[in-house]
Amino acid sequence: MEHAPVSAREASILVQAVVTASGGQCVPVIRTPSHGVEWIKWALDSGAAGIIIPMVTTAQECENIIQRAIYPPRGQRSFGPFLAPYADVDPAADVAKYMKERVKEVAVIPMIESVEGVQNAEAILSVPGVTACFVGPYDLRQSMGLSGGDGEEPVYIDALERILEAGKRNNVVVGTVGATEASARRKVEMGFKFLLTGQEPNFLAAGARSTLQQCQRGMNAARSSNL
């Protein structure tokens, strides 16, 4: 939702579609466009397994997010998960089951993607309730005066390692982008535990391109055999 014009209603439909189509094997996570309570509420009430929150720069911002995402007594999340049962493959699922079982597994994943966020990584990842952390490389590099979404500049590698170390000390897994074989290997070797490997438009385009190429080869083979 952060970088795409997806409404709260559309996000709810997508969450249910992912769960149903995968038979419950895929867990949908929503990346909200802001820290706003309305976005966090809509995302979690849809039945999503968790939320990824962009541009978290301080521990207080992270605490505010936790308050909005978790029910009392730890947080202040408002009650209303009436769509959540529809994101469950169990035909007997209801709100009571969500509150008893699934709500305990909701993931809250702050994004660290700025110089300030790196400086406060230890404090951010020590906030109780943080499940994991995602490093946004493009915005992080921009905030450092660097271009592109990856690189080996010492200052950038130092920032990544600082976040990874904070994650280890606080038992918080850290992920980032790894969209190529070389990048994925490098990031895992560094200690990242999960990767964003691409986006839906890229996957759709790659699939369409592959199908078109296969069909063209078949057509060309048929034409050659008719000569």
Could you say which structural class the secondary elements and strand pairing correspond to?
Answer: alpha/beta
Low-confidence stretches: none
The CATH homology group name of the largest domain: Phosphoenolpyruvate-binding domains
The overall pLDDT, averaged over residues, is: 95
The number of helical segments is 10
Major beta-sheet overview: 6 strands, parallel
Number of strands: 6
| Adjacency order of strands in the biggest sheet | 1-2-3-4-5-6
Q: Please state the oligomeric state of the protein chains shown.
A: single chain
Count structural domains.
2
Helix fraction bin: 40-55%
Quote the beta fraction: 5-15%
CATH topology of the largest domain: TIM Barrel
**Shape type:** flat
GO molecular function, one term: aldehyde-lyase activity
Organism: Fonsecaea erecta
Protein name: HpcH/HpaI aldolase/citrate lyase domain-containing protein
Family: Belongs to the HpcH/HpaI aldolase family.
